[in-house]
Amino acid sequence: MTADLWIWTILIVVVSAGILIDLFTLRGKVGLRPALAWTGIWTTLGLAFTGAMWFWKGADPANEYLTGYVLERSLSFDNVFVFAIIFTYFAVPAELQTRALMWGVLGALVLRGVFIVIGSELLESFAWMIFVFGGFLIITGVRLAFSDEETADPSKNLALRLFRRVVPVSGEYSGNSLTVRQAGKLLATPMVAVLIVIATTDVMFAIDSIPAIFAITDDAFIVFAANAFAVMGLRALYFVLADMMHRFEYLKYGLAAVLVVVGLKMMTEDFVHIDAWLVLLGVLVLVGGSCVISLMVTRTHVSAPEDQKTGTT
């Protein structure tokens, strides 16, 4: 077995084990304390993999992985807030949110893997695709900066609207079941609609995040590893941040700025080379700064508005 194949095998085993551990440790209604603990564990694991990259591939690939991981982890904050909007819209009970998030995480991993393969092939076959990806990131960043909650309104989701026209849906949840029989008719539960919106959301986030990390590196292993470790702790991160959405009202501007900066780096790479550690510093300053400013501005808020809390209507 070649060295590269060994590395891929170890990564897949670690990611698979992480998913299983996450699946069996976070069940039902998750409190803030265990969510914080597991967020710390997954974040530590993701950062520790930098050492493995340093040992296997050297300093530069390790820096690229760390930058890519921090970038993808930062962008995952937006995933969390959109998931909270979805759960609020569908009034998903707290005890069922972990199951929906599980499918969201698995879907995100699969879709990102697919987009990594596609992105690698496109960049290798067509050099001009780097400008397409870079321009797309800049446009996405600008749109994010001027977006509002209506942009993530599940009622405007095309797949959901088509589903509701074709499939009869019951008016209430039935545990983790996807179907229920009422008056002799087989109906889909609202959980099916939730999973459809999460799946289409996963697609959009994969389209946004994969070009971003390709601005850091074209090494498919680094791209997948950074995405896998960033996504693995998404469920725990959700339960930490979901009820704090109102405290991060300026975070989207930091994320938007990151996407624009990364897009510009991608488009100008042939003319101006920017080291990965400088991009890492920029991401930390922009995202960290927007979080600090948000928390300072909203420090007088005692609790989230009722209509933003998870699992309420």
In N-to-C order, the SSE pattern is HHHHHHEEHHHHH
User: Beta-strand percentage?
Assistant: under 5%
- Gyration radius, rounded: 20 Å
- Roughly what percent helix? over 70%
The end-to-end span amounts to 54 Å
Report the count of strand segments.
2
Give me the number of helical elements. Answer: 11
Q: Tell me about the biggest sheet?
A: 2 strands, antiparallel
Overall pLDDT level: 82
Q: Say what oligomer this is.
A: single chain
Low-pLDDT segments: 302-313
Read across the widest sheet, the strand sequence of neighbours is 1-2
Shape: globular
Tell me the structural class.
mainly alpha
Kindly give the count of domains. 1
Outline the structure in words.
By secondary structure, the chain is mainly α. It has one domain (3-308). The protein is built from 11 helices and 2 strands, in the order H-H-H-H-H-H-E-E-H-H-H-H-H. It has helices at 3-25, 32-57, 59-89, 94-125, 129-145, 158-166, 190-214, 220-232, 234-241, 251-268, 276-297; strands at 179-182, 185-188. A two-stranded antiparallel sheet has the order 1-2. A hairpin with a 2-residue loop joins strand 1 (179-182) and strand 2 (185-188). The termini are far apart. Mean pLDDT is 82; it is low at 302-313.
